[in-house]
Write a structure and sequence with these properties.
Blueprint: H1 3-55, H2 57-65, E1 71-81, E2 84-95, E3 98-109, E4 114-121, E5 128-135, H3 149-152, E6 165-167, E7 176-178, H4 184-210
Parallel strand pairs: 6-7
Antiparallel strand pairs: 1-2, 2-3, 3-4, 4-5
Helix pairs in contact: 1-2
């Protein structure tokens, strides 16, 4: 290798490294700049979704048409697990002063990345009233089908008396959920996230409901 070739190679290597550093810094800067905006958008989306998660889309729309206010109060609940405190953002929904239900914001590991969700629950945590996926990066055309109304509708009115189970094929038991074909891991991740939130929050939320 001649001196000129060596010099060109070294120059190109440094150029590539410099571009990589600049690109990384740019991405980091964008994340710092856009991060608060993205988080604010998620909070607004959550607040807008609370009536639907508690009452269902049709009833929530009826309430809106009648100008009936759904009072939403955000609260933070800490749950001690294995020496650590897990904090949940929970939204209390009331109509005419009566507790109508809860919406839990939670997250867990999916197939590709973290899945962020909202889970609607009735006042005494006896059934699921809705689920909504706030953020996910699952495989397009497979795992990302967790966002579809068709798949999410399986969870509506499911009892929380026993943990949900994801099955391949056709669900037969009351606690079973049909997995998305080719995306069992993503499907199971959603049921695991729900099961964990219900288990951790059942007693704290029931205590709060009884105190209302």
């Amino acid at each position: 290798m001649t001196e000129n070739v060596k010099t060109n190679f070294i120059s190109q290597t440094w150029l590539v490294l410099l571009l990589a550093i600049c690109f990384g810094a740019l991405l980091a800067g964008m994340q710092i700049t856009l991060g608060p905006t993205i988080e604010a958008n998620k909070i607004n989306e959550t607040l807008e979704k609370v009536p639907e998660m508690v009452f269902g889309a049709a009833h929530a729309q009826e309430l809106a048409d009648r100008k009936q206010v759904v009072d939403v109060t955000p609260i933070s609940i800490g749950v001690d697990k294995a020496g650590k405190t897990i904090r949940y953002s929970v939204f209390e929904a009331k109509t005419e002063g009566q507790l109508a239900g809860w919406v839990v914001k939670t997250a867990g590991q999916g197939y590709a990345d973290k899945i962020e969700m909202l889970i609607g629950l009735d006042p005494m945590i006896e059934k699921i009233t809705g689920i909504f996926v706030l953020d996910q990066k699952e495989t397009p055309g497979l795992g990302n089908k967790i966002v579809t109304d068709e798949w999410r509708s399986q969870f509506l009115a499911k009892s929380t008396a026993q943990p949900l189970a994801t099955v391949k094929g056709k669900a037969s038991a009351g606690n079973e959920i049909d997995a998305i074909t080719g995306a069992t891991i993503s499907s199971k991740a959603v049921t695991d996230i729900i099961n964990a939130a219900v288990k951790n929050l059942r007693n704290p939320l029931i205590e709060k409901a009884k105190g209302k």
